[in-house]
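User: Fold this; tokens only.

Assistant: Input:
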Amino acid sequence: MKTKLIAILVVLCGIWWATPVEAYDPVQVQQLLQTKQCGGCDLTNANLAGMNLSRAHLIGASLMGANLSKANLTGANLEGADLTGAKLDHANLTNAYMTNAILDDSNLAGANFTNASLFHANLHRANVNSTIFKNAKVTGADFTGANYNLAIAD
């Protein structure tokens, strides 16, 4: 009997442990969507795909694992934001300010960083396939281990 109980607990703990956690605060997501002001917000794993976040202020925000696929982040301020593991494929980041942003392990395939500022940004192991960096400022940016096949720079 004890063995069965322990086995059931082990299975249940394994299922609980493997379930993805949505850490974002729904109130902060609403704040972002309504005001485009959310500096320091916790938007971890938030689904913001396709959203219009142009000129949003997300300084120091946690966007780890967030889905920003096809989002409009034109002119957004993401200085010091943590976008580790975020999905930014086909996002528009034209004129975005991303100094000291962390984009480790993020998917940037097909994203547009035209005229963006990525000073000292970390892009370790990021997927930058077919990503546009036309006139982007990438001084001090770290692309160690990035997959950059067909990335477009000027």
